[in-house]
Design a protein that fits this description.
The structure is a single chain. The protein has a five-stranded mixed sheet, with helices on both faces. Helix content is 51%, strand content 14%. α5 packs across α6 and α6 packs across α7. The protein has eight helices and five strands. By secondary structure, it is of the alpha/beta class. The model has no long low-confidence stretch (mean pLDDT 89).
């Protein structure tokens, strides 16, 4: 499936989700399961946040075998995520990768909170996540007046999504080759907890 067609499919699925008109038939899903035992051909790869409120299959109204989903707090990029995306893009021929963050992301907020703490008071257990998100949050903290916490978090969420997209585009020779030669498309997206709408960040 061409990436533009896959993107259209996700947009349409999200519109159904927002309208409360999910098109999935659970009985058909049970029947479909047998056909997926030996093979799969997901239309999109989604790197999303682990947040329980943002399950990609429901948000995009997709079923068994439709999405190859990788979830990690803060939708951050690490070697294991890159390897999973490389595998799916190469093995299944999937040509759309979506990095999906969401409003009020707890990992982003925790990173902001940690960076505002003195170094000796920061949690070592959050260290890897904070270290991953820190480069895109620090410039915002330096320019933040402190008057609008909500605007800071919103800007940090989008900056983190874009940073993950950039890392995937530039951090893997395999993905770069697939993008240059075979039309792989890597895009960002932000899910709104308030509305259910997914806003694709196409730039």
């Amino acid at each position: 499936m061409a990436p533009e067609e896959a993107l259209k499919r996700l947009r349409e699925g999200n519109r159904r989700f927002v309208a409360g008109q999910a098109g999935l038939n659970r009985k058909q899903e049970r029947l479909r399961r047998a056909g997926l035992v030996s093979a799969q051909a997901p239309c999109a790869i989604v790197l999303g946040c682990s947040d329980s409120r943002v399950p990609a299959e429901l948000v995009f109204d997709q079923g068994l075998g439709d999405l190859f989903v990788i979830r990690v707090a803060g939708n951050i990029v690490a070697p294991s995520q890159i390897g999973s995306i490389e595998y799916a893009a190469d093995k299944f021929g999937t040509r759309l990768v979506v990095v999906m963050g969401h409003s009020q992301c707890g990992a982003v907020i925790a990173s902001i909170d940690q960076l505002e703490q003195p170094t000796h008071m920061r949690s070592p257990n959050l260290g890897f996540i904070v270290k991953s998100i820190q480069p895109c949050v620090e410039p915002l903290l330096e320019s933040d007046s402190g008057d609008d916490r909500g605007a800071l978090v919103s800007a940090a969420v989008r900056a983190n999504i874009r940073a993950s997209v950039d890392q995937l585009r530039s951090g893997s020779e395999i993905l770069k080759s697939l993008s240059d030669d075979e039309g792989l498309l890597i895009v960002g997206a932000e899910y709104s907890l308030e509305t259910g709408v997914v806003d694709f960040l196409l730039d």
